[in-house]
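Problem 12. The chain below contains 377 residues. Write out its predicted structure in token notation.
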Amino acid sequence: MHLEHLSLLNFRNYVRLDLDLGPGLTVMEGANGQGKSNLLEAIFLLATTRSPRTQTDRELLHWLAWESEQPFARVVGRVQRRRGPAEIAITIHGERADGAQVATKRVRVNGVARRAIDLLGQMQVVLFGPDDLSLVSGPPALRRRFLDLTIAQVEARYVRALAHYQRVLQQRNHLLRQLRERRTGEDELRFWDEELTRHGVLIVAERERAVDQLCELARATHYRLAGSAERLQVLYRPNLPLPEEGGQRLFLAHLAQTRARELAQGVSLAGPHRDDLAFLLDGVDVQRFGSRGQQRTVALALRLAEAAFLRQRSGDEPILLLDDVLSELDAERQRRVLEAIAPAEQVLLTTTERALLRGWEVGRARLLRVTAGRVEE
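Solution.
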């Protein structure tokens, strides 16, 4: 799989861009703040409908776009895949409501309007970013998001179950708050309990299978990156272990036991929305006791494992996006990362310093310079 053309209109600091791409390694060099990361952000958006850098879509529009009567931004990508080519287009429409700027997204695949959740899997990407250290050292929500996006790119029923679960969770929490204020009866919870547990069991089962696979892949990639015999384990830590057989009944029973606490706090206290991952090196928790270097190596191993996971599940090579990750590594780890990504069909890498690529990688790469929202050879 590879992206062969990217078109941007009013996206971030790009007023207009048409960029032909191809297989192999493409290096985008430039000073900070010139728009290198914005290119990778646009590609990630095409694959997931989400920005990896903001949850506020209005920030994706170029500031000049807001001066027009109908502000908008558009990102279009043409991707080649084993199952055939596809054109993905995302349009972000800006509006002014009560003095505030808001934005909505519309998605088209091959010219046909699609729901955002139907876009997942059309193009698969893995983004290596400078904030990946947070996958190990940060809060559980980041690890859940990593896991959800990884599985969602290859498992359609997981996407649907997760979307239903999140809607049900929101409604159930709203009802719990109403019950706390005694504005409704507890009988209304039964329907939402059934829905929460039905989708929750599927989510836990899919996560468990995925983490088992990721663990084996991450162990192998960590060995190559670290150059040591430390044994990496990636463990799934469900908030509530739920076997596929009888899991819903167990979940319902747990909800009944915690009902008083949930009513007192006005929030759902059990379920996959509270799951986590753990990383162990020779049995030692890396989050709590690992050095910064160990944590960074584990995070890189996890990203490489994600790429292998997507390849094994889909049969297609994901597009690798590396956003200035080499500058945080010593020379030996830089070499090992570049060797690990070399077999990929398409790699897009940003850097402020071409010298970090050290020799043969530059000779095999296409070099682009990014300056103030312009890209040139």
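Discussion. The mean pLDDT is 93. Students who got a different answer should revisit the alignment rule from Section 12.3.
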